[in-house]
Amino acid sequence: MRVPVLITNLILFFISLFIALQNGFDRAAPSTWLFIFLTLALVFNISAFFAYHNRKAGAAAGSKQKQQYDGPEKRSYYRVVYSPNRRPWLVINDCAFEVTDISQKGLRFLNHKDVVFGGTIEGKATFIDGDSIDIIGNIEWKKAEQTSLFLSNTIPHSFIKKELAQLG
């Protein structure tokens, strides 16, 4: 929609320029005022065109690349985020899943096999240092291969602090 308007405005601009040049840019001539008006309209349309396309490109880039949040923490609990080589394992019904992060009331794990869960989930999370915790909870959300589990039981704060200290 914006490109045809821009092209039409450009054509009218050049026609009015040609007429204004023939009339000698006389301030009293309507062709001069038409040329001035169309010049302003062209400048406005060009700026609107680029603003629209920059906004559209920015929105597309924002959807593909997640923005980093630098403000205060909005979560109620500390979150431990694990690097791929230090991830604990969550075992549910003989299926093992990599845990990407934990907090006192939740954990996120990778579900590469797209296992379908229903109702309350019970499992055991085993950590790098050999510690393990019984997990009971419900699926909160699922996005691609990531699944978030809201815990019915609470992981002790001391355990979370120990994990944070180990990741250092």
What does this entry look like structurally?
It is a single chain. The chain is built from three helices and seven strands. The protein is α+β, with helices and mostly antiparallel strands. A six-stranded antiparallel barrel has the order 2-3-4-7-6-5. Helix 1 (2-23) packs antiparallel against helix 2 (30-64).
Low-confidence stretches: none
Secondary-structure arrangement, i.e. CATH architecture of the largest domain:
Beta Barrel
Mean pLDDT: 83
CATH fold label of the largest domain: Thrombin, subunit H
Following the backbone from N to C, one meets helices and strands in this order, namely HHEEEEEEEH
**Tally of individual helices:** 3
Cα-to-Cα separation, first versus last residue: 54 Å
Shape summary? rod-shaped
Largest sheet, spatial ordering of strands: 2-3-4-7-6-5
Topology diagram in text:
Blueprint: H1 2-23, H2 30-64, E1 79-81, E2 89-92, E3 95-103, E4 106-110, E5 121-126, E6 132-143, E7 146-151, H3 157-167
Antiparallel strand pairs: 1-3, 2-3, 2-5, 3-4, 4-7, 5-6, 6-7
Which labels suit this protein?
rod-shaped; six-stranded antiparallel beta barrel; Thrombin, subunit H; 168 residues; alpha+beta
Task: Please outline what is shown here.
With 168 residues, this protein is an alpha+beta fold.
